[in-house]
Amino acid sequence: EIVLTQSPATLSLSPGERATLSCRASQSVSSYLAWYQQKPGQAPRLLIYDASKRATGIPARFSGSGSGTDFTLTISSLEPEDFAVYYCHQRSNWPRTFGQGTKLDIK
Amino acid sequence: EVQLVDSGGDLVQPGGSLRLSCAASGFAFSSFAMSWVRQAPGKGLEWVSAISGGGTSTYHADSVQGRLTVSRDNSKNTLYLQMSSLRVDDTAVYYCAKGGWNTPYEYWGQGTLVTVSS
Questions:
Q1: pLDDT computed for residue B112 by the predictor
Q2: For testing contact with chain B, the best of A30, A46, A47 (most B CBs within 10 A)
Q3: B14 near B86, Cβ under 8 Å?
């Protein structure tokens, strides 16, 4: 099973700041890495897939990078609605796995 | 517009059974793999199972193998999760999601809560 480790567990920033979230895989997942955003009481929402492709309707301030085992989600300038929990997910191997999540909260 | 509507969640005793449903609309259901993902209260996301578009191939997490079984009825545009021998640690919100085989989870249902407790 591929283990995805996200860091940091919690990130405290202010609106307008840049956020950098990390996801490290225990073995290569090629580019089959996605990022999801989840707000309280809501289903997750797809942000980035195949490491760097923005999903439909996702603002340009969200970007993804990386391949193999190291991946980054960057939010260039935080908006109030961006404070949420973010999960990475791999679809390279079975079983599919998620990272444990990074909570982005307001400083 | 793609819609996924999860239903069937309930309070059930340990060892009991339940069947979850996910009604899909707005896309060619039989052409896409579907998946179940769950989230225990206050915890992260956990992949549960996936099924190919035709329904001939399935995968399940080790934690649910032999107890939870994914299936689909393409004539009804509906995905199912048959749950048996339920345990307390199966308590979670269960989400169906479009994709998960060769594509990411592009769309999600609203989730349905399964509570396993005596």
A1: 98
A2: A46
A3: yes
Helix (H, G, I), strand (E, B) or coil at B90: helix
For A85, phi then psi, to 5°, come to -105, 140
B105 contacts A36? CB cut-off 8 A: yes
pLDDT at A6: 98
**DSSP assignment, residue B64?**
T
Whole-Å CA distances, A32 to A52, A87, B68, B103: 10, 14, 26, 9
Beta strands of A14-58 (E only): which ranges? 19-25, 33-38, 45-49, 53-54
Scan for tokens 């085992």, then name that residue: A69
- Taking only the tens place, the pLDDT of each residue in A4-38 is 999 999 999 999 999 999 999 999 999 999 999 99
Which residue stretches of chain A are H helix?
none
Q: Do B108 and A43 touch (CB under 8 A)?
A: yes
pLDDT at residue A106 in the model:
94
A58 at interface of B, judged by CB pairs closer than 8 A? no
Inspect the interface and report whether the beta carbons of B44 and A101 lie closer than 8 Å: yes
Q: What is the pLDDT of residue B86?
A: 98
Please tell me the total number of residues recorded for chain B in this structure. Answer: 118
Which residue shows structure tokens 């169906």? Answer: B96
* Average pLDDT of span B69-96: 98
Q: What percent of chain B shows pLDDT beyond 90?
A: 99
